[in-house]
């Protein structure tokens, strides 16, 4: 149903001859990098899948990744922007490696990365102005939402997920009292719906993330990266337990661990570069998730819990970046002009 009154304004801001803004460059570059990685992972998953519904889901996700990359390449070529190296099946994928995950894990993984992709596209849409770029990100959002519907249909249809907790509908409108923020001392109120939502979401994200980093720690070749992965696995497990306790204390259900969906294979299907980038990227996305969680939280104990989680994750991302740089794997995003350097040139 059309609910908005049309506004007809012609503007050169929609002219395709206009230069790409920093926001447009940034989001296109990030989307390309993420999907070049996803392409390799999805190709591998498709080598080891038996459930036909899940196979179709993986094929749909791969098709989107390839389509997104192709569109971005076309935009970049028009602008003479160098196509990012990203990840390739030749250098970063060993498609013949034994199965590392059970079929069920693929569905949980796709839900996690679809959420991450939607957060990128959601931020991009209000910031981009050139018509072709705007239409591209709107399409990315709409097609990823369609994929998410398929993911949820499979999760529900095959009984692979526990729904977010059910809580009573309020009898009347009420206003909070001065003990609303209490979490450690005094009268501590029950969790409200927004707090429950984000605890559930963080558990769901983290059980998927933990299973992935656990699998990577089994197959990675570099000892430095393995040690970092093990550290990430340990604090992720602790974070999950902390979030679960908050819900269990209210007699509310939580998503389950997915560790059992990782096989005991030690043969790596991916390059160390891809695995390190992937976990660095996933943990960086968690920082945004914790920001959203903290923004709607009203209890001091939960706020402190998220702050501690954030510190662990920020430290992991920092160390991951150092290893990426140390190995010469860190690809530069588009930069502003170094004016000071230009001024000092003779």
Automatic annotation (TrEMBL):
Its domain of life reads Bacteria
The family database entries (Pfam families) matched by this protein are listed as:
DUF3231
Q: Which InterPro entries match?
A: DUF3231 (IPR021617), Ferritin-like (IPR012347)
Please give the name of this protein. Answer: DUF3231 family protein
């Amino acid at each position: 149903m059309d609910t908005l009154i049309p506004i007809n304004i012609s503007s050169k801001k929609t002219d395709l001859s206009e230069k790409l803004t920093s926001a447009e460059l940034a989001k296109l570059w990030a989307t390309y990098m993420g999907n070049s990685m996803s392409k390799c992972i999805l190709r591998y998953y498709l080598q080891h899948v038996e459930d036909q519904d899940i196979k179709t889901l993986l094929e749909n996700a791969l098709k989107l990744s390839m389509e997104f990359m192709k569109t971005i390449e076309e935009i970049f070529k028009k602008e003479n922007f160098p196509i990012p190296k990203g990840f390739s099946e030749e250098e970063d994928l060993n498609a013949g490696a034994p199965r590392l995950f059970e079929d069920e894990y693929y569905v949980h993984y796709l839900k996690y990365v679809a959420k991450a992709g939607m957060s990128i596209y959601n931020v991009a849409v209000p910031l981009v102005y050139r018509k072709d770029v705007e239409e591209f990100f709107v399409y990315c959002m709409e097609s990823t939402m369609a994929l998410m519907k398929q993911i949820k249909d499979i999760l529900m249809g095959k009984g692979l997920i526990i729904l977010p907790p059910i809580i009573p509908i309020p009898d009347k409108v009420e206003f909070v009292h001065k003990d609303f923020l209490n979490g450690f001392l005094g009268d501590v109120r029950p969790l409200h719906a927004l707090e429950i939502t984000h605890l559930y979401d963080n558990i769901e994200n983290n059980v998927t993330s933990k299973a992935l980093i656990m699998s990577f720690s089994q197959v990675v070749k570099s000892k430095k990266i393995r040690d970092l992965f093990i550290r990430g696995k340990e604090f992720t497990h602790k974070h999950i337990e902390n979030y679960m306790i908050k819900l269990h204390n209210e007699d509310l259900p939580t998503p389950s661990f997915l560790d059992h969906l990782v096989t005991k294979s030690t043969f790596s299907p991916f390059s160390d570069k891809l695995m390190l980038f992937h976990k660095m990227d996933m943990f960086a996305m968690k920082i945004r998730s914790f920001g959203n969680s903290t923004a709607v939280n009203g209890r001091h104990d939960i706020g402190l819990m998220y702050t501690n989680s954030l510190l662990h994750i920020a430290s992991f991302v920092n160390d991951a970046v150092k290893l990426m740089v140390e190995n010469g794997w860190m690809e530069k995003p588009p930069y502003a002009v170094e004016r000071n350097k230009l001024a000092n040139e003779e």
